[in-house]
Amino acid sequence: MSIDATAARPPESRRQPPPILAAPIPDAPPTAMAASTVFLDAGIVPIVFAGNEKSKHFFEKNEQLCARLGRPLELTPLTRTEPRDRTLFKTFCRDLDAALVNNGVVRSISGLSDTVPLSGLMAASGGRVGRVVRIVEAAMEHAVSRDADRVELYDLSHAVQTFAMPQRYINKNPFAK
Prior knowledge:
Distance between the termini: 76 Å
Structural class: mainly alpha
Strand order of the largest sheet: 1-2
Shape: elongated
Radius of gyration: 21 Å
Number of strands: 2
Strand content: under 5%
Number of domains: 2
CATH architecture of the largest domain: Orthogonal Bundle
């Protein structure tokens, strides 16, 4: 008598597998594209294609893949000129700050949603929250290396100078005095 392995597992283990994250690769070989379409057509696993503005051309020239995809989700940068964007950006920075404390990464709130750090993060990130995370991560590493209780403007300035500027997020350090 055989036992079905999936029946023996708790229900949560029979859930659909997590999505495969795939970044579009310009001029991907046909076999890679074929594998993607097999997964999509068979419904084996959800696939999430992620990219930046430069990826748009990839999707435009791959009509068959585009036909299989749902409606695109475009995450455009937040802007200082839109009140709703400013609120979302400030809330994101406040919540990121709280998460750093709540997870024991730093000992006290850094004030990322205060006027000066918020303005500098908006400028340095171009309004892209993913970039904010990477900048704050670099600043946090700098703060932790000097055993600071929190991320300070000095750490944000250092992160922009040594990380964001070499990555060409911005040309001038908004935290430099």
